[in-house]
């Protein structure tokens, strides 16, 4: 959309406000897909929820590519957004539930890899097709996005269902067959099956009811509250640090820095997409070796420095060659640090910290926070930059990124190498520890009064 919006504006003569709505509405509407995805995945399974996501996105993408007017384009964008909401919610949950603990961080980062790869392909397609007539090029830019969802549909006939979901459905033999495929030995598969059964039984997972699940989420115990703060908080910080504005509006940023021609603008966005994709591979290699928390520190601190640097470049070096180079470097630095930590680890944490009985619905709630934050930022970016300049906007993002560092320090535990069931115990123990500290403090105050 970042490149297509340039030619949509020229072809359909849409206003600046309509541009903001077109870009940002995808994130807002996707929250409905994320909310529906939690219940749907508990009902029909993780695997077929992925298929439903692909089907809905294909429908919306086709409508967008063929849209004769802004209204029809918006309808396609809304439908595609619902499909994206399903996909964002279910992909990390599915991967976390079929992955061994030792490699779960790397494997659960795969959605972020392909999101980044998709962004890169989007930038490349924008550059490849931008010389076509304005009433054709943006349709092709959006239409080629249908190809990956077709691949996903084919893959559904190969990938297995989540063994944890199968256990919840009391389909033990099928769950065992899946575990045999993803375990090192039959003994290992048996042990995993018993561990999953125990977790399911302790959470009354065989008596799932949406009402009961949401009651526990809305009136959480101390451990569940800490899980929600961690999972939803990291999702929101992923977006409110401004990453989607860089993805969607990078041509606007570079134009503000001093780049004028369409070819040069789109070429610069390709550099951003390439950087974002390459650095996610570093995260994949390190996430299960160094752990989640060290990478989050590197990520949030690096993003903070990059965002302040971009603000400086746009304020004091705008339209100078050195300023343009500095701005491109700062944007690439921002997306690089994002891809090393906050980008992939957000999905890893939100998919692994919740207990089996709450995982789908709580992950959906976290995805809603992400989508609302993304939509609010994307839909207000142009208006905010008109009010406080592009440089001022990225200074604000830098301040928010500073608070993300503090959030990581206080609210994110290390989950490296732990099974999903062990992580549940980790939060339980933390909750009990906090409760014990509160009780001790109350007792001390009473002693002092007496």
From TrEMBL:
Membrane topology field: Multi-pass membrane protein
What is the protein name stated in its UniProt record? Answer: Major facilitator superfamily (MFS) profile domain-containing protein
Keyword terms, alphabetized:
Coiled coil, Membrane, Sugar transport, Symport, Transmembrane, Transmembrane helix, Transport
Gene Ontology terms for molecular function:
symporter activity
InterPro entries in the cross-refs: MFS_dom, MFS_sugar_transport-like, MFS_trans_sf, Myo-inositol_Transporter, Sugar/inositol_transpt, Sugar_transporter_CS
Decide whether keyword Transmembrane helix is in the record.
yes
Domain Major facilitator superfamily (MFS) profile, first and last residues per copy: 1-416
| Major location category of this protein | membrane
Can you tell which superkingdom this protein's organism belongs to? Eukaryota
| TM helices/strands, residue ranges | 21-38, 50-67, 74-95, 101-124, 136-159, 265-287, 294-317, 323-350, 362-382, 388-412
Q: Which PANTHER family match?
A: PROTON MYO-INOSITOL COTRANSPORTER, SUGAR TRANSPORTER
Q: Matching PROSITE patterns, A to Z?
A: MFS, SUGAR_TRANSPORT_1, SUGAR_TRANSPORT_2
Which segments does the entry list as coiled coil? 179-206
The record, for Pfam families, names: Sugar_tr
Which organism is the protein's source? Trifolium subterraneum
Q: Where in the cell is it found?
A: Membrane
Family of this protein: Belongs to the major facilitator superfamily. Sugar transporter (TC 2.A.1.1) family.
């Amino acid at each position: 959309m970042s490149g297509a919006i340039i030619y949509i504006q020229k072809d359909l003569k849409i206003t600046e406000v309509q541009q903001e709505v077109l870009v940002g509405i995808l994130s807002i509407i996707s929250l409905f897909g994320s909310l529906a995805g939690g219940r749907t995945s508990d009902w029909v399974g993780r695997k077929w929820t992925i298929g439903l996501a692909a089907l809905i996105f294909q429908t919306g993408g086709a409508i967008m590519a063929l849209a004769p007017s802004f209204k029809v384009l918006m309808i396609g964008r809304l439908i595609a957004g619902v499909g994206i909401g399903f996909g964002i919610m279910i992909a990390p949950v599915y991967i976390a539930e079929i992955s061994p603990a030792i490699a779960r961080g790397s494997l659960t980062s795969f959605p972020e890899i392909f999101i980044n790869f998709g962004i890169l392909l989007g930038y490349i397609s924008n550059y490849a097709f931008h010389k076509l007539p304005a009433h054709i090029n943006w349709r092709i830019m959006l239409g080629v996005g249908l190809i990956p969802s077709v691949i996903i549909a084919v893959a559904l006939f190969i990938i297995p269902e989540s063994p944890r979901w199968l256990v919840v459905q009391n389909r033990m033999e099928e769950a065992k067959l899946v575990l045999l495929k993803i375990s090192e030995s039959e003994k290992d598969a048996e042990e995993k099956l018993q561990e999953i059964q125990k977790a399911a039984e302790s959470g009354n997972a065989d008596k799932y009811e949406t009402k009961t699940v949401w009651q526990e989420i809305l009136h959480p115990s101390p451990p569940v509250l800490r899980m929600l703060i961690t999972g939803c908080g990291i999702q929101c910080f992923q977006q409110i640090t401004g990453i989607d504005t860089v993805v969607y509006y990078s041509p606007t940023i570079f134009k503000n820095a001093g780049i004028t021609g369409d070819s040069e603008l789109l070429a610069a966005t390709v550099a951003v997409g390439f950087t974002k994709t390459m650095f996610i591979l570093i995260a994949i290699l390190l996430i299960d070796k160094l752990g989640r928390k060290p990478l989050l520190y590197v990520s949030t601190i690096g993003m903070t420095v990059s965002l302040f640097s971009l603000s400086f470049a746009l304020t004091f070096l705008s339209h100078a060659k050195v300023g343009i180079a500095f701005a491109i470097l700062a944007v690439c630095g921002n997306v690089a640090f994002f891809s090393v930590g906050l980008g992939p680890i957000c999905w890893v944490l939100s998919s692994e910290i919740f207990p089996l009985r709450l995982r789908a619905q709580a992950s959906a709630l976290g995805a809603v926070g992400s989508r609302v934050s993304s939509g609010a930022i994307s839909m207000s970016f142009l208006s905010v930059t008109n009010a406080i300049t592009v440089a001022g906007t990225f200074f604000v993002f830098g301040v928010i990124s500073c608070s993300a560092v503090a959030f990581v320090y206080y609210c994110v535990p290390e989950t490296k190498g732990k099974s999903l069931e062990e992580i549940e115990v980790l939060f339980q123990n933390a909750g009990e520890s906090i409760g014990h500290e509160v009780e001790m403090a109350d007792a001390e105050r009473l002693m002092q009064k007496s």
